[in-house]
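Q: Focus on the chain.
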Amino acid sequence: MLRVSAILLLSLLATFVSAIKFDLAASPSSSAYNDRKCLSQYVSENTMVIVTVKVGEGYNQRVDLEIYDDSDSMNKYATRKDVGEQGAKLAFNTHTDASIIVCFTNTLSEGFKNNAGYKRTIDVDYDIGAEALDYTKIAKAEKLKPLELELRKLEKVVQEIWDEMEYLKKREAKMRDTNESTNERVQWFSSLTMFALVSLGTWQVMYLRRFFKRKRLID
């Protein structure tokens, strides 16, 4: 029983959902894009992500959202126009190691003057990796017992932690190679600088010695 309790506790601690709730003020159509609000979450390559958005009530306001990453290719994963109170649930797999950015704009309808009273509440939930899997369907398909299902969840979480550690290990090795290469270049640059300074100093001494001899200032 102690082992079972420990496993269940670890699975509960390892599995979490990132939830954010905020108010988004409405802006005229001419400035709504500049007043947009963005949230970011770093996600590894080929990871399943589910973004669930709930939008509160708002009169004559249109909430749009866009999901993309900050990689060089700027992969765009989803766009939704006029997300109403029914909300939206968007699922996708990431294409690269990057931060997933979710941006919201709240556009005020034409003919309405902007004031602080126009705003809508945005509720965003991130389900990433193991969190995004539908374990109810898995349990039904494979006929798993509750304990076996918790072990499956824990196995997935541990695998993600292992993959993250491997990624960090590669990053550390890459940074170490970069540091060693930089140190080697600095050493070569220092050696060339010292050689140039010594050569220039020797040439100056010899030039001044010849100059003073021509002027008969020294023997």
